[in-house]
Amino acid sequence: MKKSATLRDVAEAANVSMGTASLVLNGKRGVAAATRERVLEAARRLGYRASPRRSLRTPHDIVVLVERTPLSPSSDPFNKPILQGMETVARGRGYRLILEFVEQGEPPSLDRWTQDGVTGLVILGGGDLDEDWIRAALATGLPLVMVDHYVPGLEVPTVVPDNFGGAYAMTKHLLEQGHRRIGFVRGPSKYWTLGERLAGYLLAMQQAGLAPPPELIPPRVSHGEEKGYGETLMLLDLEEPPTAIFAVSDKTAIGVYRALNERGISVPGQISVVGFDDIELARTVSPPLTTVRVPCEEMGRVALERLLALIESGDWREDNMRWTLPTRVIPRSSVRRLGS
């Protein structure tokens, strides 16, 4: 018995992405006339018949792959606005977002991404979404955009904040406030974005002639809700503690605050603290946290706009641009100018 033609077969025969083929075969606009005719001719030649499940999958689906963490994406203070930005664009264009969670150590599976109705993929963040997952997503032939993640050497369209520039600017801000001994509380090495923040800090310090000794960048000893806590205690136990601590994220800065509070050390009276991301909590802690603002909702909007442009153009493999959105320092009350 001859095997029925699939959406992938049609897309390959017409030399377009599966997303573009799906748009054409479901009567959607946004595809050039010549491309539309090529897809329809391929479908006729192959005898393609849409799956009866397709009627249950309207509007078109975009799968968002995200690492499973203790916090759901809808309540995570960093990912939530990114998803809101995506949802705004998707809903306005007749698409639906479907979240798919990746467990630690889970191998990638292509089958559930190549069903009729799935027109594109978004990889949100890094962590357990390693290179194997990204290569598997590329192998589907579906248009793909990565958000807040980047893998050197892989040609994938990406949308990221300027982590390096933001950390560099924040370190310069602390230097301008008279701080010279600045500690840095790092994050997990599996997150490429956090490594860029460390690099920005290091460059600013080196340019100031203050290359930090290893003791000012303690090894990670705290995880989950405790992040930043144990590393701060290590910094405080130094013979010469830092006058300022740069936490790699706002959530890490909360752990820094807690350790300082337990030791009876005031912020910013005795030690200044800064973070990165500008999540809502950064504005409500006491004192309000000086931080670097990441345009999370804009990242989500730009990512979906790029993905839809790739889906509708049919030439998605030709656009491997890395879109870097600007970040900026937000001064608040957690930094003291030394000598004032």
UniProtKB/TrEMBL annotation:
The keyword DNA-binding applies. The keyword Ribonucleoprotein does not apply. InterPro entries: HTH_LacI, LacI/GalR-like_sensor, Lambda_DNA-bd_dom_sf, Peripla_BP_I. Keywords: DNA-binding, Isomerase, Transcription, Transcription regulation. PANTHER family: HTH-TYPE TRANSCRIPTIONAL REGULATOR GALS, LACI-RELATED TRANSCRIPTIONAL REPRESSOR. GO terms for molecular function: alanine racemase activity; DNA-binding transcription factor activity; transcription cis-regulatory region binding. Pfam families: LacI, Peripla_BP_3. Coiled coil: none annotated. Its EC number is 5.1.1.1. Residues 5-58 form the HTH lacI-type domain. This is Transcriptional regulator, LacI family.
